[in-house]
Amino acid sequence: MPVNIPTLSAEHLLPVPGVSLGIAEAGIKKSNRKDLLVMTLSKDTHVAGVFTQNRFCAAPVVVAKEHLAKSSVHALMVNTGNANAGTGEIGLQHTGATCMALADLLGCEPCQVLPFSTGVIMEPLPVDRLIKGLPAALVDLKPDNWFAAAQTIMTTDIVPKGVSRQIELNGATITITGIAKGSGMIRPNMATMLGFIATDAKINQAMLQRMARNVADQSFNCITVDGDTSTNDAFVLMATGCADHAEICDQESVAFKHLQATVTAVAATLAQMIVRDGEGATKFITVQVDDGQHVNECKQVAYAVAHSPLIKTAFFASDPNLGRILAAIGYAGIDDLDVNRIQLYLGDVLVAENGGRAPAYREEDGQQVMNQSEIVVRIVLNRGAASATVWTCDFSYDYVKINADYRS
Amino acid sequence: MPVNIPTLSAEHLLPVPGVSLGIAEAGIKKSNRKDLLVMTLSKDTHVAGVFTQNRFCAAPVVVAKEHLAKSSVHALMVNTGNANAGTGEIGLQHTGATCMALADLLGCEPCQVLPFSTGVIMEPLPVDRLIKGLPAALVDLKPDNWFAAAQTIMTTDIVPKGVSRQIELNGATITITGIAKGSGMIRPNMATMLGFIATDAKINQAMLQRMARNVADQSFNCITVDGDTSTNDAFVLMATGCADHAEICDQESVAFKHLQATVTAVAATLAQMIVRDGEGATKFITVQVDDGQHVNECKQVAYAVAHSPLIKTAFFASDPNLGRILAAIGYAGIDDLDVNRIQLYLGDVLVAENGGRAPAYREEDGQQVMNQSEIVVRIVLNRGAASATVWTCDFSYDYVKINADYRS
């Protein structure tokens, strides 16, 4: 069961002026299941994207990057049930055909459509069914359809994921609404499985692209469920410009910083929802590494801890078998690491220092923290001023069950 | 249950002239459980060791490396039930005290004792109980005690692991016998959890050290169960020199190569036994990567596949969800990888080529290979002449169970 995700309902997700969403059951995943989403954007919308670094990246990722580079964007099209990844040349043709079909219906150019797919890898996209589903999605287009959109993009997700915020910006009230999906094959490298955030703020393209990358680095790029970087990760940030305020053109401006902070908060909430709904998750773990020489080494240590099956199963069991954390720190790959300078905290409890167990540490204190559903592991390297945080979940029987049964 | 390990019994493990082994129940692990092993070596034995690269390496690893560097070796002492790792300065003192106690009993110097520990991390070594157990182990010393020794060093291992070979070398018949333990926290980096191989061959120290490293790289350094590099890994190669043949002093000699090939075969058998008895294992997986630019990139790809929880759970389920393998190849970290040149084989079945599913691939062919308990995954990168092989196991409910319950 998801770890502490408040139940989402339609009224939590505010419409964003300039954005409409339409849903259909195209029969890609299975019948009677929403599996196709179309989002249309008003004319002056700027769109920025960040995509997976996986070399086996999916056909829709290749095409979306290409379209984004050469054109303004009028629509996004997302299907679940099939990732169209590991499908070679024919996969690219399939994606091209779907973009062309949607463009025809909308009266725009194919390159104004960004395609996204998620689901099983190395199976041909059922392109005819997808195309047949498009008209129904267009009939359904409306601004207050974000909740249904969040449901539509789910795969092994148990709950839909979305969040809205409103802020005052240059004298106007603007809205930011985001949705995301993802539960397994989650260790984003530059983006997450699928995350879409829209705002009616007015911001130029260069500033929006910079913001998308900054936001991804502080949110989706900080999570891991299983260490598997997906072939289809994409994070898209859309700004329709429908709000009535002066355009943001300067990354040093108060408005840029305010908007970026809010979008980051939205993205971090979505990213954490993905972990909270991580496959089989029963606990939400924050791994914070402080006082490293640089951010990269802090991330290295944080990911070593966050990926260790031994540590993740100990969290599942609420077993303070914390020597496993020391072992992971030790093999994280920092060659000149002096283990005698490290402090390990579980919650507020100092567990280890001077290369071994802290004299005041009592197992019952560690046990008390382990029993909680939200746990912070803090590792202080004492060799610099850099920090990094990674969010992850535990590793349970259900992770094995979900992934052993995925296609059945 | 272990995957295809022939049942070992005492007569399978041949004595090695010059080596005696003694066992005791010291009450370190739990009562009525063999947990202490002493091996004594004849006077002119050469010993070479390879140890974990984990920065949080255990006190006995620190001490064993130190002793090996400065002295000849008269005895090895191994306890299970406690790793004496993450124990700081007091851990080193404890190990020092045990070496001193054994040296007193044997009439040698403490630095002639190599200590080894395996078990739970960050708990103080019960040093008094260990020392009290030593006399019983010495009373038990005998050359034909290898089977009991293999049983003694087990932790979460289900079966004891050992193998013997005999070869003709420079006109003499020499024996090689090895034992190993390990089942979880297995992703050796320069060595394995614990592996001991002895021979009565006559070989000088420099050649033996070189051989130990070569052998480790072709055996223990090619396995992974869970990607967790232990704090206590050690592989020790001992040559008593009791056999009656000319000493091996040249790595280009036929005798060196013959001995190294045989020791490598023994070590690879032991290493594979560790994987076959990997925590919760139901399948034995060989990941072979061919035609890479260099061995390192082949290993990178092989380990990405061998560590992916998504792939390992699919093996457990016998589900040919092979797109997950493409995803892992894609995120293995080779930046200029051309996925269109890659071939993926499952057993003899060509699964993927040209960036997608091979036209002739039929799911029932993949299913047939997946149903087997021994599976070879072969990835051909087609960008060079280098190869690497990694042996691993699947990821089952029992892995979670074993590690959630480890200390209870």
Automatic annotation (TrEMBL), chains A, B:
Record-level GO cellular component terms: cytoplasm
GO biological process, one term: L-arginine biosynthetic process
Positions annotated to bind substrate: T155, K181, T192, E279, N403, S408
Catalytic activity: L-glutamate + acetyl-CoA = N-acetyl-L-glutamate + CoA + H(+); N(2)-acetyl-L-ornithine + L-glutamate = N-acetyl-L-glutamate + L-ornithine
Top-level taxon: Bacteria
SUPFAM superfamilies: DmpA/ArgJ-like (SSF56266)
One Pfam family here: ArgJ
Pathway: Amino-acid biosynthesis; L-arginine biosynthesis; L-ornithine and N-acetyl-L-glutamate from L-glutamate and N(2)-acetyl-L-ornithine (cyclic): step 1/1; Amino-acid biosynthesis; L-arginine biosynthesis; N(2)-acetyl-L-ornithine from L-glutamate: step 1/4
Keywords carried by this UniProt record: Acyltransferase, Amino-acid biosynthesis, Arginine biosynthesis, Autocatalytic cleavage, Cytoplasm, Multifunctional enzyme, Transferase
Compartmental location: Cytoplasm
Site note Cleavage, residues: A191, T192
Active site (UniProt): T192 (nucleophile)
Keyword Translocase on entry: no
Signal sequence bounds: none
Keyword Cytoplasm: yes
The protein's Enzyme Commission number: 2.3.1.35, 2.3.1.1
Residues marked Involved in the stabilization of negative charge on the oxyanion by the formation of the oxyanion hole (site): T118, G119
GO MF terms held by the record: L-glutamate N-acetyltransferase activity; L-glutamate N-acetyltransferase activity, acting on acetyl-L-ornithine as donor
Its biological purpose: Catalyzes two activities which are involved in the cyclic version of arginine biosynthesis: the synthesis of N-acetylglutamate from glutamate and acetyl-CoA as the acetyl donor, and of ornithine by transacetylation between N(2)-acetylornithine and glutamate.
Similarity comment text for this entry: Belongs to the ArgJ family.
NCBIfam families in UniProt: ArgJ, PRK05388.1
Oligomeric and partner information: Heterotetramer of two alpha and two beta chains.
PANTHER family given in the database record: ARGININE BIOSYNTHESIS BIFUNCTIONAL PROTEIN ARGJ, ARGININE BIOSYNTHESIS BIFUNCTIONAL PROTEIN ARGJ, MITOCHONDRIAL
Name of protein: Arginine biosynthesis bifunctional protein ArgJ
Gene: argJ
